[in-house]
Amino acid sequence: MEKTDVAVLGATGAVGQRFIQLLEGHPWFQVREVIGSSRSAGKHYGEAAHWVLDDNPPDDVAKLTVKALNDPLDSPLVFSALPKEAAIDREVELAEAGHVVCTNVSVNRMAPDVPLMLPEVNADHVGLISVQRYRRGWSGGALVANSNCTVMPVVMSLKPLLKYGIRRLHLVSEQALSGAGYPGVPSLDILDNIIPYVPGDENKMETESRKMLGRFRDGAIDELEMIVSATCTRVPVTDGHLVNISVELEEAPDCETIIKDWVTFRGPDPVPSLPSAPSSPLQYLEQIDRPQPRRDREAGQGMVTSIGRLRECPILGYKFAALSHNTVRGAAGCSILNAELLAVEGYIQGSPLAEVAMAK
Amino acid sequence: MEKTDVAVLGATGAVGQRFIQLLEGHPWFQVREVIGSSRSAGKHYGEAAHWVLDDNPPDDVAKLTVKALNDPLDSPLVFSALPKEAAIDREVELAEAGHVVCTNVSVNRMAPDVPLMLPEVNADHVGLISVQRYRRGWSGGALVANSNCTVMPVVMSLKPLLKYGIRRLHLVSEQALSGAGYPGVPSLDILDNIIPYVPGDENKMETESRKMLGRFRDGAIDELEMIVSATCTRVPVTDGHLVNISVELEEAPDCETIIKDWVTFRGPDPVPSLPSAPSSPLQYLEQIDRPQPRRDREAGQGMVTSIGRLRECPILGYKFAALSHNTVRGAAGCSILNAELLAVEGYIQGSPLAEVAMAK
Amino acid sequence: MEKTDVAVLGATGAVGQRFIQLLEGHPWFQVREVIGSSRSAGKHYGEAAHWVLDDNPPDDVAKLTVKALNDPLDSPLVFSALPKEAAIDREVELAEAGHVVCTNVSVNRMAPDVPLMLPEVNADHVGLISVQRYRRGWSGGALVANSNCTVMPVVMSLKPLLKYGIRRLHLVSEQALSGAGYPGVPSLDILDNIIPYVPGDENKMETESRKMLGRFRDGAIDELEMIVSATCTRVPVTDGHLVNISVELEEAPDCETIIKDWVTFRGPDPVPSLPSAPSSPLQYLEQIDRPQPRRDREAGQGMVTSIGRLRECPILGYKFAALSHNTVRGAAGCSILNAELLAVEGYIQGSPLAEVAMAK
Amino acid sequence: MEKTDVAVLGATGAVGQRFIQLLEGHPWFQVREVIGSSRSAGKHYGEAAHWVLDDNPPDDVAKLTVKALNDPLDSPLVFSALPKEAAIDREVELAEAGHVVCTNVSVNRMAPDVPLMLPEVNADHVGLISVQRYRRGWSGGALVANSNCTVMPVVMSLKPLLKYGIRRLHLVSEQALSGAGYPGVPSLDILDNIIPYVPGDENKMETESRKMLGRFRDGAIDELEMIVSATCTRVPVTDGHLVNISVELEEAPDCETIIKDWVTFRGPDPVPSLPSAPSSPLQYLEQIDRPQPRRDREAGQGMVTSIGRLRECPILGYKFAALSHNTVRGAAGCSILNAELLAVEGYIQGSPLAEVAMAK
């Protein structure tokens, strides 16, 4: 099968690099265009990018010439890791011009007609694209977002509990450095230290989780009504966000039942069979001192959320810890999974899979 | 004034070292006896102790010969940093033999007739010593404990709010490495990592805080009735425990009022005038990203608790972060402050201050 | 092809775990026996081992019952990660009993008839096994060692320069925590700190490098005559030893020539075709700030040594930095590569490869 | 005695903050003017400075209004922690206008008529000021530099060995994060990592050390002739640069003699009696694993250099490790000590000490 051409916006930044790393050898997608700042434009990617991940950029991408932000693009599928200010207009322009834009940026996430997707949790929100296209007068383009990287493990671990009714949620995160991008947190601020505040994230925890766990009906997302109290802290860990979660449910399942709900959770078809989907999106660790960022973030190539320490909370009923790799499952990897879903559902024009989807 | 002789039990361990460091140049107390394991006994302290704090042990203590655990002691005042198993019997024996034992060990903390003290919070619990002596048939000896190092900042920051009625408390700690002693946490377990579990501490958070905030009346401690939910995590920080606290009050003071309660808090006389007492035991930091362990743990020579980020909690009403130096205010420093209180209250026989106290 | 049964001595320790991790899915070898301390013996491996690597132990090994140190073994091939004291006698006993023992332990490394092997560097030292067997009266057994983990990158990077004549070598290492085993370095000793001393390693740098780079002739190793000055320091890095190397050569090749020597280096046949051998054992990084432990230790699945910063040394002529993954290429991975070489060379009785080798 | 007014250039940066912290309560100097970037100018210092040191800025300085770079200054004594580009012209202008400028910046260090001073090492280089004033036509102003923070411990530990004749010097540094300023090294570059390169420092090690150890005669510095090979690396440590030093001497003193030279070293009068001078500028640590950055950097309030591990180097004869607090003794603290020397020597006009000096 021919691969779909892909463009990466903000390709030289930390999340842009993760897109490129994860797309290396992808069975459906091929990076053909890399877009950077005016400072990078015109250079080879290998030269323009100060590679902050392990090893070096893949050879085929290293040879690409970096395009400028406003250069026209050929690729039907676009991944965006732009800085916020650059993203606001450009993402919409590209979607209007017919590109399917899967964005990791926060600016458009809470727009009512932009699906905020984590496929195992809310694959049906993809239906919002038709509303979006109709409302905005777009033909083949679309704008689809994935969530904040700290919201992600919360939503993933709560989805199987949704059936018990979620009333209140108390969250305290311990977030990795890569969540702040590059150069991000100065080492002098975080070595032998923690910072009890992460700008913007507490609010996102409260708003994005309600939208993602909401129901798509009558052409709109009906947000989940629940009370959320979030505290976000930064810790000296390279990758892997851990969230300490207390939750109040309407029903009172026992802990064994909840653990069974987690480990048997798969998400709706066709999500489990997508190339980037792990066989099980959740694992429960029995050891009393897990999950731990360094030891568990790579589970399922960084796409599995690890849960541990489920026990009684004297205040809200249940408490546990959840961990996800923030730049894989919580950012670029999720965006790619979203794109895979859009591909098999026929939303990406010019994709060979679109024809397969159409034929169904 | 002549100084009171002091013995340190468990002197070669991490907390024992902190006792020795903090007692260097103390105006009332002088370390005369150091007690270590059988392996250390007979050696000079400077040779026996693998000093893990900065710099080196004070010269006068370095020259002392380490005594064995069961050697008889001459000092009227004893600080204990023994391992748990060694502490159980030996602390009681020494108190029975007439020594005033200020212990940092957990084993005897919850005994009904052992005061669990943080002087600014519950100096009046000292009255329990008379009960203890009467019940156990002790004459001049006594056994007084200070709390777990993570409970300490919680209790200190809640004391000024006690008047509003405390109903429920949700705690998530981020604890420093020195809280686990030495050698303690292996570096391979914590570099680029956090551990979402600290053995034993969650239970202590719930029980010790109720006792410390309780009222001493009719010869007993009437524990505070409140519901506590605690999660304890370990982070790669050398010193300084930070606790993320959500609290539900019966009344509804505004945040300015609470901050004023904190910054004006002094504790009852004669505590503020004791040598190790800071001028104000609490400080409130206005910066949104404080308190931070590395930048705030040394406040007031490690004896001040720093609070920040007071704001509304959608679930319990109020939330904030509190930080204390865990081996100073949360351990050895608190034990010394307890001893200073006992000294001026006349509980330490042979102390020159006892005579002054008696004369009052 | 049927796999050769393998036993791992010291299987529950940090290096033992790395053996088990690296042998998972190995094409020739299958872990059938795990040997631990008396405390672990009789338990399932999954229960006995406090797994310190990422993720969890492989399922098939987790189910094995741990054997005691002196239990008889069935496997023809034995990997040893024993503590030093346990290793001295047991390794020799097992070799005497007909097992091929590939050891990562230091005790027998410098014995004149024990090959100290890094296959790309000195595959011909395997010939020493005949001497060993003859001298000790062993029939099918053998004892083969790999080097200290800090010596390894030095020897690997110097091998291609051997032809220019190596006179003097000045080494300053910056070593990772895993080199000290588990629990190893206490976190309180190394967070926000370095330790300018690693017990025993400076001496090994000087002796083992001379033996490894020596020539096997007339049934003995003729050590390389060179003067070595080594300083070993410990840094807060999980894995990956970096060594700052200054070297004096008899000849004066230019830097381009040396870099070409490195990148074209392969080692003698059949080494490059062994399953664990990387396609090129050395890579040269052009970036001025590389190699770095976190970014380069995983090169070639941890089997490639990364070199960088080759430049003039005003004192010795040349200087550069070399980095290897200390528990993969510098320990368990090297031991496995040694075993692969022994297998194809016909030294492992009962191995299907032995028959192939014999037939040649 | 009235205090001399002091201005701090680059006051909001990391080194500028250290100047302000160290000058708090200084017996001779009082910070009256703080100079920042155009972005900071006009604001109160407490508001303009993102304080990166522990605790908070001193109250009296926090209230000062930040001046712009080109605002005229009143203070006779100026400390400079400017960025390099800003420093080049402005430092010279201020000296020309009659201010005594003690700079921590590198740009003017190697100018032939600028003394590069470490008072215990080369107090007599102060004589170069007369040459400077004469040559440049300045009346009361002067420009005096202190060295690079990594050069400093090298020069301090070598000074007592100068009498044995220093021929060759091999240096490998392990440098702290604060040496790179703030924000400086991104945490993602250094957590669980080291960087084997520090831009610019290797060259400074070679040039500055020769000048500092040189002799002032005939109105010029006669640089020490020695061969220096330096490698500079960055490690995850907040403060404290450690250098692994190998040195070749013309004579062959034994190690005891060298240690005695170090511990008895004081520097020439009047240096030992200056307010910021430690009683002994060098300490030798007998423990085999010292000096360590976290445990030894605060020795003598950060003004003492710690040495350890003196032993034979098979190549150069001697090797040892030296450590200094890089932002105290290696930067701001040294600059203040230089100013104290200038004050008592009568070089600062309008300083009460100048009159005392004149009267002598």
Structure, explained:
4 copies of one chain form a homotetramer. With 360 residues, the first copy, chain A, is an alpha/beta fold. Helix content of chain A is 29%, strand content 22%. The first copy, chain A, has helices at residues 14-23, 45-48, 59-62, 84-96, 119-122, 128-136, 151-158, 187-190, 201-212, 255-263, 293-296, 328-344, 352-359, and strands at 4-9, 29-35, 66-67, 77-80, 100-103, 142-145, 166-175, 215-217, 220-222, 227-234, 241-249, 282-285, 305-313, 317-324. In chain A, α1 crosses α12 (328-344) and α7 packs parallel to α9. The longest helix of chain A has 17 residues, at 328-344. The first copy, chain A, is globular and about 60 Å long. The relative contact order of chain A is 0.15. The model of chain A has no long low-confidence stretch (mean pLDDT 95).
Order of helices and strands of chain A: EHEHHEEHEHHEHEHHEEEEHEHEEHH
Q: Note poorly predicted spans of chain A.
A: none
Largest interface: A-B, 40 and 40 residues
> What proportion of the residues of chain A is helical, as a percent range?
25-40%
What is the β-strand count of chain A? 14
Topology (elements, then pairings):
The structure is a homotetramer of 360-residue chains.
Chain A: E1 4-9, H1 14-23, E2 29-35, H2 45-48, H3 59-62, E3 66-67, E4 77-80, H4 84-96, E5 100-103, H5 119-122, H6 128-136, E6 142-145, H7 151-158, E7 166-175, H8 187-190, H9 201-212, E8 215-217, E9 220-222, E10 227-234, E11 241-249, H10 255-263, E12 282-285, H11 293-296, E13 305-313, E14 317-324, H12 328-344, H13 352-359
Parallel strand pairs in A: 1-2, 1-4, 2-3, 4-5, 5-6, 7-10, 12-13
Antiparallel strand pairs in A: 7-11, 8-9, 11-14, 13-14
Helix pairs in contact in A: 1-12, 7-9
